[in-house]
Amino acid sequence: MGQPQCKRDSRRGATHAASSEMRPQKSTTASPDTYQILRGAPSRPWVLVGRGKMFRGSWVLVPLALCLGCVCGVRGAPDVLPPYEFHHRALLDYRAEFVMLWTPLQDRIVVELQVATQGYVGLGFSNDGSMTGADVVIGWVDDSGQPHLQDRYAFGQLTPSLDSSQDYVLLGGVQNDTHTMLRLSRPWRTCDDTHDYQLSGDTVRVIWCYYRSDPSPASARLPKHDRRGSKSLYLRDPSLVSTPDTPAHLKHWDVLSPQVRLPDDIPTLYWCKLYKIPELGRKAHIVGYVPQISPEGQPHVHHMLLYECHISDSHLHMNKFVDAQGAQCYDRNMPYSWHACSTPIVAWAVGSEGEMYPDHVGIPMGEDHGGATYFMLEIHYDNPNLRSGVVDNSGVRIFYTEELREYDAGILTLGHMLSPTLIVPPGYTWNTVAYCSSQCTEKTLPPTGIRAFLGFLHMHLLGSSISVQLIRNGRELPTIMNDRNYDFNYQQARVLKDEVEILPGDSFIVNCGYDATKRRTPTFGGFSTEEEMCLAFLTYYPRVNLSSCYSTPDLALILHTLGIHHLHNNSLQQFPSLFHRDDIVNEFHENVQLNEMETGGAAPLDITLANIYHLVTVTEPQKYFNRTVYDILYDPATWSDPSVVATLQEMITYGQYEPACEFHGRREVPGIPRKAKYPAYIPLKQESLQCIPATTTTTTPPPPSTPTTTSYSFGRSSSQGESDSATLPWAPERENEIDKESLTQHGAGGGAPQSAALTPYIVVIALSLTTLCCYS
Question: Contact 585/336 with Cβ under 8 angstroms?
Fold first, then answer.
């Protein structure tokens, strides 16, 4: 291809290529060069081509000079932005008109903005996505081709004010007939603690806006933006490995829900269905997945989990259910054998774009090869407005290959057991602490240990922070994961900066922070979005026979702290063991359940776990005589004494707890004590990051030596039929975030017990607790 001719854009100092050869052509296969990019090889810079153009990969990898390099004779600006290897890329809006690229360096972040406008562009950082208190940078390219950048701060919904400390560095800016590109950098920690948002590894709400024309250079005021929005991102994490097209050796398996009809009388539905892996000629490795969210299910799909099923004689117990519609999870409709499906290989939630594993690991498929042959898909649906007629077939697309990786991988679940013993008092900020005991890892890990490389954190609407600590020989090691600004609507897996070695005898502490200051009634652990969870998933290698390591606080101590001294029959047998046993599977009963599935199944039930407290009656002290624990917990007087709440917080954090350790298939690891105490350890001394003062340097910092820039295909994933390639990340046509204040809280009516009509369902829930899944 010859050198294209250039012509000047009459509206701007920038120019664009006149030759039609400059238009990228749609490609149907991934070139070897593109696939090298997936593996982390050096890549060419990202470039945006044309307004709203949707090519394979949507944003095409081409040399920057081809699209913007013909900036013939632009005065006051460089001819091109020099090539730069960006490690991350995100669409900030669902129209694909605002693209942010960035590379995290040791002391600063380098950012490039590619925006479909010829006016000003705005970028900001805040805790909650609002303008108030946001750190803002505004930039544009004027009619002479000169780029401009202004560090500003927002104190309300007014024009952001100019900051006296200009901490952003302009590295370049160019413009063509459709787009403005600005490249800039700033330190992670500036010395301006008054007006700057200090960036870290926590979730950050990135604010964006743009306008059709430039601001007046004579005025500090800005015309109001045409469009704005916000998106949560991890700015400091290494990038996820991802794939734009399917290489010849990569196959896919679509695991989709079977046209599930959401009930219009309960707000939460958990739907489970069994699947069998495709026929394989030999051992294969799962190497990643992407979500397949249907348009109808988009506002309702909260999370999806795909579990391995590990049970003896799996063909006998599982195969008959593969063609069945499925059942509501964790109630009387779900066969007991399905509780052996407990080891997750997919953990997707709102905001996640899927995962692809690094090329040295893969999850084995098939029981004959160390994996599983049968899987269970669990989908959590939210329908808070009780819409009727909603039918969904969302799911996941699993990528697998018979070109085996070096190591078999697995996923370890940590955190608080899914249980109503997770209690968040109303009107308070709160910490729930869960433990993985050293005895669990001592009995299950090989002497050489395992290595974690990927993590996923999960809480619900009250979640504000979550961390995973590692303790070894009485000393705290560097924190594995920590997010002090958790966003329920952005639950993307996180690549660990360095692989973490986990050895026999190590223990974990999972600390979950909640903000219940706006709640009027207590919140308990449970399935629904209004209930809470505290979970962390670590993907690791080499694979071992360990599925979960979690805990729950000692319920007797919780009740004693709340002034409950004696129960009727002094029994807590309503809270039984959760472990699975193959030998008690009743085939006759399971065949009856299969027949119910084939004939439409039973109506879904309310599976609110806190309802079990209706079954526990108090005899002492006298003021609580003959009242249920449910009634006491929902009585505002219970939470009116701050000293009682403080004592409960102390007990939850440092008191006695009940550990649990599971093999695959929810089998109990023997020899784990029933009660344990908070682990004593020497805390790790935390080093604070030094601030970097404002500078006038305009040299682009060099990127790290091993970039991981990747190519994506954007657009909503369709679950109708099959296509030659998957879409990653998934970009919804409209926002599907859940407003924390929009849901009606369960039990908001106060302390009155629920209707007696619920009693049969409560009994069902109590029985189901013997086999409840602990990952949701």
Answer: yes
Percent of the chain at pLDDT exceeding 70 = 77
Cα–Cα distance, 724 to 712 (Å, whole number)? 14
> Looking at the chain, how many residues does it have?
776
Q: If 0-12 CB within 10 Å is exposed, 13-18 middle and 19+ buried, where does residue 654 land? A: exposed
Task: Tell me which of 195, 458, 460, 580 is the catalytic residue.
Answer: 458
Ramachandran angles phi, psi of 644, nearest 5° = -65, -40
Which of 572, 551, 576, 550 is closest to 560 using CA atoms?
572
The catalytic position among 35, 210, 270, 486 is 270
Which residues have a Cβ under 8 Å from the Cβ of 695 and sit 6 or more positions away? Answer: 169
Alpha-carbon distance of 291 to 726, in angstroms, equals 9
Helix (H, G, I), strand (E, B) or coil at 672: coil
ω before 447 within 30° of 0 (cis)?
no
In 503-640, DSSP assigns E strands to 507-515, 523-524, 535-541, 548-553, 566-567, 618-620
| 270: annotated active-site residue | yes
As a whole number of angstroms, the distance between CA 245 and CA 713 comes to 8
Residue 185 pairs with which residues in a beta bridge? Answer: 110, 169
The phi and psi torsions of 620 (rounded to 5 degrees) equal: -140, 145
The C-alpha angle 368, 372, 375, rounded to 5 degrees, equals: 150
Q: Provide the 8-state DSSP code for 716.
A: P
- What are the phi and psi torsion angles at 613 (to 5°)? -65, -15
Phi first, then psi: what are they for 124, rounded to 5°?
-150, 165
3-state secondary structure of 211: coil
Residue 117, pLDDT above cutoff 80: yes
Which two structure tokens, joined as six digits, stand for 648? 């409960």
> Which stretch of 269-273, 352-356, 496-500, 635-639 has the lowest confidence by average pLDDT?
352-356
Round the average pLDDT of the chain to a whole number and report it.
Answer: 81
651 φ, ψ (degrees, to nearest 5): -65, -40
Neighbouring C-alpha atoms within 13 Å toward the C-beta of 390: 24
Q: Which residues contact 81 (CB under 8 A, 6 or more apart)?
A: 45, 64, 68, 112, 171, 172, 173, 174, 181, 183
Distance CA 406, CA 454 (A): 17
Angle at 594 between CA 591 and CA 597, to 5 degrees: 155
Q: HSE-up of 751 (CA within 13 Å, CB side)?
A: 13
Alpha-carbon gap, residue 151 to 162, rounded angstroms: 6
CB 74 within 8 A of CB 14: yes
Q: For residue 111, what are the CA distances in angstroms to 101, 286, 353?
A: 6, 33, 21
